[in-house]
Amino acid sequence: MTQVFLGMPHTGGWRTDVEQPADTLRWGHTFPQGAHKTLANTQMRRNLGHATRTIRSKRAMRVAEMPDWEELRNAGEAVKFEVASRLPELLEQFEANVTARGGIVHWARDAAEANRIVAGIIASKGVDDVVKVKSMATQETNLNEYLADRGITAHETDLAEMIVQLADDMPSHIVVPAIHRNRSEVRGIFLDRMEDAPADLTDDPQELTAAARAHLRHKFLRASVAVSGTNMGVAETGTVSIVESEGNGRMCLTLPDTLITLMGIEKLVPRFQDVEIFTQLLPRSATGERMNPYTSMWTGVTPGDGPQEFHVILMDNGRTKTLADPVGRAALACIRCGSCMNICPVYQHTGGHAYGSVYPGPIGSILTPQLTQGLADDDPVHTLPFASSLCGACGEVCPVKIDIPTILVHLRARSVDVKRRLVPDIWDVALGASAPVMSNEKLWAAASQAVKASALVGGQDGTIGALPFPASLWTGARDLPVAPAETFRQWWRRTHPEAPGGGSAAQSTASTTTEEN
């Protein structure tokens, strides 16, 4: 079978239409622009819908088994709150304990400094090939591209990350980076891009896994340097941990002579016993498993066992600026489970690439704008807090109880505050004009009656599909329902004629609702 490259394979129907971004937190497009593109990819939407439904069902079963699930969530929230409150102290404690056990600690102010440190350590070993454990931190810094520019090849060993890397793609999910691919597409990617893939490879999952295992075995046996991220660092002991499902991480953490771990400064827990909380919350929320098949923990260097040189890089890259926001800082509590993405109606339709960041979905919508401080109109990530229906489902499933909807509203307000220093746009004018009406009971009542005229331009399905400018700014992206034949006040008077207060109660309720809105 002939292998076909340049993104036009004939073996699986796969294609990659995402360019490798220079900044993995800012791909260059706004969310509306990204969503317009991804919504046209019907195959991706089918793949994504099937995968998220499966994960949600498994998660629901595993959570239902836990009589103390809410208590676990409360405990996780409390630990993460403590970390945010004591972060400088805990980081110093972690550094001291890593160093005392033979490890070497580096500090990186931003992604560029973190990449330089990693590349410098690798160069000092005289190698040009390294193996990698799945890591969001290295995705955040675009480490693979940085190393490639310096003649160093980083081989992803997580199966989903390997699929993304072989396809010159970008991840679209925090936990399952290749969630937008089905097994036929994976077969095509392997046949087109994996030099040692069997010519008679089918799309059977066992065959695909066996092919990946054989391909990676040679990488593991030859590599003398490995790069990892971490799920948790323990301040009390200097321990670092990785939880994963395939065992590839275990190979990276034991076989090479040198291990380099890149860690965001927020990924700490104060005590070793705190690990027990998150090893229950994380697998159930991420993949619907009772526990991760592989939980690896290492503390410094042990002579004759595992890597004999251990480096940990503590990276800020916008985290201290996020910590300075008393509302937005809760985003740093994220344990990267992806449960908010699996339940989000917006993510399920648009996929992760629409968000223009390696952190997609609801958590990406509150984390990326804070890490980048990109809330001005000229920054594409300022649109992310608006990429939500505010249905609240993400907050309900978050295992550490991050109030994502509240942070989304908060960041929307911050974005508007930044914009107030610029020339007002059409939305500013519209909201300014509507404020007097919405704050006056009589004007609001009159407007409620006047809007009933919308039925004249609505279709048979009760929606308005198109209106002239400036209303086209709304109807160009969504249908507008026509006003109901009856207002709330009228419905109340009709259905509650004997209620205390009568019509005045309805007027009071409606007025209060209007003021709150």
UniProtKB/TrEMBL annotation:
The keyword Ribosomal protein does not apply. Residues 495-517 are annotated as: Disordered. Gene3D superfamilies: Alpha-helical ferredoxin, NagB/RpiA/CoA transferase-like. PROSITE patterns: 4FE4S_FER_1, 4FE4S_FER_2. The keyword Metal-binding applies. Keywords: 4Fe-4S, Electron transport, Iron, Iron-sulfur, Metal-binding, Repeat, Transport. Residues 505-517 have a biased composition (Low complexity). One of its GO terms (molecular function) is 4 iron, 4 sulfur cluster binding. Residues 324-354 form the 4Fe-4S ferredoxin-type domain. SUPFAM superfamilies: alpha-helical ferredoxin (SSF46548), NagB/RpiA/CoA transferase-like (SSF100950). Pfam families: Fer4_8, LUD_dom. InterPro entries: 4Fe4S_Fe-S-bd, 4Fe4S_Fe_S_CS, FTHF_cligase-like_sf, Helical_ferredxn, LUD_dom, LutB/LldF, NagB/RpiA_transferase-like. GO terms for biological process: lactate metabolic process. This is Lactate utilization protein B. It comes from Actinomyces slackii.
